[in-house]
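User: Before I run my own analysis I want an independent prediction to cross-check against. Here's the chain; please return only the structure tokens and, at the end, one sentence I can use as a sanity check.
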Amino acid sequence: MHPELVEAHVTDLDMILEISKFRSGAGHDFSYFRDSLPAAAMTAIAGIDNFFATDTSEPESSMKHYFAPHEPYKQENGDNSTIPVYAPFTGSITRVIEESREEDISIVNKRVEITATADTDYTTVLFHLNLDDAYPQIFNDYPTIDGIWTHQEDDPVYTTRAIEAGDLLGYADMRSSHDFDVAVLFNDATDDKWISLFELIPDSLFSDYEARGLARADTSISKAYRLANPVTWGERNENDWVRFTTVPEPGPLPLLLTALCWLWHGQRSRETPRSL
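Assistant: Structure tokens:
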């Protein structure tokens, strides 16, 4: 069991069409660092805090959630100033690095890590953000690794790294993109593990997902299932995604009853009390 750290939604749910499941085959492998690199590079990576999960028992899968907006907000219609991204819990920005879209490397945005104040074993990673200028645009970047990564110095001018749950971090960069993504890294006693954001969401907040047709079981694929059913990368599988249903609007009868109640209370308040 994990603590219910999440106090705010990461985005405006009314703008979201579907979310990928934890351990899905959406996107690319995001389980643990499987690459084999030169010894010097591996040594440098080993010294980076929260670089990636180290739990090698996980099969290949995407151990994060992609949030895909409705059509008017993505791909050829997308921009980097419409889909808001909020801090899910109170914490501190512990890393900001630059990243680009595979589809178009000229589209550059930020990967932001926030470590929870209530429990520093939990860090959320938010990908592809147009980060607000109040926060550092580069912070605690990876060291230079020859042929792989070039270190950038910390941004010297910013207002704060302190984050409150629900703070606007910026906007998802939806230019030429179907989605943006959110991951959570848990540092336990033996390994660093990716866990689902939904494992940290209390029922009081998850009720907003339930209103859109989701059950908790819909948000994750079990490890046993993924081991028995390996991912085929590069193709869409509908089972990897859970789609929101429309939140029902109030029907005419509830609206009529509400109006009548207001009229009745208004009439009562205008009546002159009778003398005994």
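Sanity check: The chain has one domain: 13-249.
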